[in-house]
Amino acid sequence: MANKIKFERESVVRLASQLFWQKGFHATSTRDLQEAINMRPGSIYSAFGSKEGLYNESLKDYTLQIKAQIESFLSNADSVLEGLHAFVEHVIIETKDCSPSAICMLVKANSEFAEKDANLYELSLNQAAEFEVYLTQLFEQAINNGELNSSLTALEYARFFQVQFTGLRGYFNRPDVTQLAQPMIEQMFLLIKKL
Amino acid sequence: MANKIKFERESVVRLASQLFWQKGFHATSTRDLQEAINMRPGSIYSAFGSKEGLYNESLKDYTLQIKAQIESFLSNADSVLEGLHAFVEHVIIETKDCSPSAICMLVKANSEFAEKDANLYELSLNQAAEFEVYLTQLFEQAINNGELNSSLTALEYARFFQVQFTGLRGYFNRPDVTQLAQPMIEQMFLLIKKL
DNA sequence: GTTGATTTTGAGCGATTGCTCAAGTTAAAA
DNA sequence: TTTTAACTTGAGCAATCGCTCAAAATCAAC
To answer: Which Pfam families does this UniProt record tie to the protein (chains A, B) (predicted)?
Structure first.
């Protein structure tokens, strides 16, 4: 053995993730990244291979973090729907001024990478698909718990949730509509229960 | 007088708009634009001032085009809601494979420009606000026609429409979910009528 | 045909991009 | 203490970026 790695991969990826989430892939320069994660080019490229490699790990980390966040809200809630409700309110209202962006990083990624054969486009699709599977499991639980009737399948509920959530986050990516968020989120969950 | 301008500003802006819509602002190079609109740098910069200036005109043109499209669907429909329904189906289903992106250019713009004081961020907000005003007028009509009850204001209907539409377009920005579009759009308009 | 205001052209500038790699630093093993 | 493999550093490369401007081309007016 010899010299040990000085940086903690987890926290570096988290910092990079925040910057990529805020500025997008193309608008984030490698010098921006160097400053944000406090590493020199050589170290970055030996650890992650390329800017694209670092983005890849960042987006995967983002997906994991969302899941972890949801899990945390679920464990403090009495039902799946209440947990999701609290999560949505947290994301849209409480973190409005401290989050890198109001818009989900997965959605931003899917929107940014236009070429259908590009690696990062595929990545964004895969992460979104993975998240949809996770969400579907949650709605399966909700159905089994009797929180929702089974007029829709769990997958259909998950799709509906994603459309609503994405739409709302997009709408609230602007100033001075904060007081609208609460009632519109309320409306969203009322609709889910009435589907 | 002397030499006349050789390009048609309208069609040039339309071409630029398509490219910006597809690739985003940062990923579109001035050389990409030169090729797309068939103009040399000097002409471009004397006509539009900068890449940002051309994008500015492109986004404004995009907004006008959407409105014109909606107007066209409205004039061929028996009611406001039917017209909007046809428009939504057209955008999400029929133009899926020929549109520069499944995602609305206004939404892409709003997502791409992170710095809250940047000109193009302000522009995206202004265009979105302008479009919301337009949509609100349409829903006012719909209410006056008795197509919708007035349990919500026209503005609230417009907001709901935008959230749904944006959410759906984001969801369908991926391959192999085409057969889902029709029923989900149906569901969207059923919900609007039942609000 | 000549003039002259106007537009088009494209070589190329300075800045920035993603990234490389030789040299320096570090610390476990001998 | 010496060795040596692993890690960090940062000057700087080749490519590309947004953009400029002097020269060439154009065409209405005379």
So the answer is: TetR_N
